[in-house]
Amino acid sequence: MKGREYSVKLPKIKHVFENPILGKLANYLTAFVSALLLIVNVRNVNMNSTPIDLNDYELVFSDEFDGDKVNTDIWDVHNSAGIRKGGYWTFDQASVRDGNLVIRTEYKEDGAFGAGWYTCGLATQHRFEHKYGYYECRCILPKGKGMWSAFWLMNPNVNKTNGHGREGSEIDIFESPYYFLPGKASRLVTSNIHYNGYELKTKYRNVVISKLDNDPYENYNTYGLLWTPEEYIFYVNGHEVGRSKFGGVSQAEEYLILSCEIDGAAASPTYGWSGHIKQNGGEDFSAEFLVDYVRVYDAVK
Length: 301
Fold this sequence. Notes:
Layout: E1 6-7, H1 20-40, E2 42-44, E3 57-63, E4 76-77, E5 82-84, E6 87-89, E7 94-97, E8 100-108, E9 116-119, E10 121-123, E11 129-130, E12 133-140, E13 147-154, E14 170-175, E15 188-195, E16 203-211, E17 221-227, E18 232-236, E19 239-244, E20 254-262, E21 264-265, E22 268-269, E23 286-299
Parallel strand pairs: 2-16, 6-9
Antiparallel strand pairs: 1-16, 3-23, 4-10, 5-6, 7-8, 8-9, 8-23, 10-20, 11-20, 12-17, 12-23, 13-14, 13-20, 14-15, 15-16, 17-18, 18-19, 21-22
């Protein structure tokens, strides 16, 4: 399946989100571009298509979250704890319960960095880094406006400018910023690719926005990526939804990230592509991102 792709120069600027004014402007622009993409690049998941066949693949990594706490031999907070866009990331927002990783988003008066919204991004950097293969997680998305969950791959070379995607790309297998849309319109996830840093020269492509046939905020679904030296192929529930070679396919090892983020900057929430967290009704709001498993497969040689 070859879908339409859309490239836009976005101010996905790492330092912008440390500045409340510039960060707010960046959020508004991202929201505008996201709205345009919702018009032109939404596609239903074709459940009648042939699903991915993993018979010629072997499992090389998994976390089934069957213990009683997050396995620190595998996961740590991505980019260390602290300010992350409209909130804070801290490790204590991640736990394991009933066979799921639970990333909780909530407001804390007495959080580690003071009053504010807290959530978490967990990464396997320096613990498990891999190249090529099939990557998949099974999860239930968090119910919340002004926030989103994601499963993505990352390499430090993404921060290099005047480079190309072959050195390393941010590969967003899925992101879920659409809970704010009414009714079944919210049943969307987006798949994206970034490289060339996070300042004005950043390169970005939206590969596809996938519409699920069930409620992903109530039901488990799987989100996957088949990464080969020649191409990225994205999957929902084992069915292909889009593919891309944008920027030149990454030839570098990358690490896995599971995260929730809050629209905003300098730990102050603002409107963005996912709405505004205040639309959930106040500081009593909380949401949970539930992940049943993460698995990585390699082709059998």
